[in-house]
Amino acid sequence: MKDKRVVFMGTPEFSINVLEMLIKETNVVLVVTQPDSYVGRHHELKFSPVKEIALKNNIDVFQPNKIREDYQKILDYNPDIIITCAYGQIIPTILLETPKYKAINVHASLLPKLRGGSPLHKAIIDGYKKTGITIMYMAPGMDDGDIISQESIDILDSDNVGSIHDKLSILGSKLLLETLPSIFNNTNNRIKQDEKEVTFAYNIKREEEKLDFNKTAREVFNHIRGMYPFPVSYTIIKGEIVKVCESKIGNEVSGHIGEITNLYKDGIGIKCKDKEIIITRLKPSGKKEMSARDYLNGKKNEKLIGEIC
Residues 120, 161: contact at Cβ < 8 Å? Predict the structure, then answer.
């Protein structure tokens, strides 16, 4: 596959394993990624993780603000195939159709489930038992192209979005490597997606990060895992925003919804729709992440039981 000219399009850390595999196994002639961004209180200019890898490997980088308007440079590289993985912009049809082997995408869900930009989060938040990787031909719509291959993994109660991110990043690279020969040999079986089975995973909004204790303890537990370690869910305790990192489902059923009902050695019990969720790890505003035990040790003289979060 070293004779195949590949243009890779991706941006976040999730894309790195795929890019590194392609650099090793194919001829990556161009990397397309999102423009550099300013981050932190000092507004330092930061490259995307994908750009960092490209520069280390002396591969040209292209960073259009709007790929739909600025794509000629990609065509000038005459790619045999375009491969995308978490790029972050809608790609124009001309790029999908021009390469000899078209354009394919590495998507972090079992399509047609969880089309969109946050499938890692939503798989956990929405209580899915399995997720996985789909290699697909790209189409003008959002993640609606024909499926080439898929592989699944179980979602465990011990998983959060960080662990699923790492597992699927590795799986995406592995499955793509296994799938590429069938793409180049035109031997794969294209499977159209069943539109009746479609669900969506739109990008997480700030208001979705706040915990809703009107939901069941299982739903709140899933929400916390599906937001950690990024962007991290939160609640408000005694007027202070507290980010919630880890939790477990308790057994207590008494109390009012959203009320702190119990203080344990290792957690803070808050009543949900059916029973309590016990927060075991959190991050108070302006402080480092800590165990609930350490948080409670600092609140010894404050009344917490009965507070509504």
Answer: yes
pTM for this prediction: 0.95
Q: Which of these, 186, 164, 167, lies nearest to 175 by C-alpha position? A: 167
**CA 272/CA 253 separation, integer angstroms:** 8
Query: Measured between alpha carbons, how far is 190 from 136 in angstroms, rounded to an integer?
Result: 8
pLDDT tens digit sequence for 131-169 = 999 999 999 999 999 999 999 999 999 999 999 999 999
Q: Is residue 97 a contact partner of residue 85, using CB atoms and an 8 Å limit?
A: no
β-pair partners for 72: none
Alpha-carbon distances, residue 224 vs 125, 197, 227, 245, 274 (angstroms): 8, 26, 5, 7, 17
As a residue count, the chain comes to 309
Classify residue 203 as exposed, middle or buried by CB count within 10 Å of its CB (0-12, 13-18, 19+).
exposed
pLDDT, tens only, 24-63: 999 999 999 999 988 777 778 889 999 999 999 999 999 9
Q: Which two tokens stand for residue 97?
A: 């159709």
What kind and span of H or E run contains 52? helix 49-56
With vertex at residue 194, the alpha carbon angle to CA 191 and CA 200, rounded to the nearest 5 degrees, is 115
Which domains are assigned to the chain?
Answer: 5-197 (3.40.50.170), 206-297 (3.10.25.10)
**Rounded CA gap, 85 and 20, in Å?**
12
CA angle 89, 154, 222 (to 5 degrees): 75
Q: How far apart (Å, rounded) are the C-alpha atoms in residues 109 and 153?
A: 10
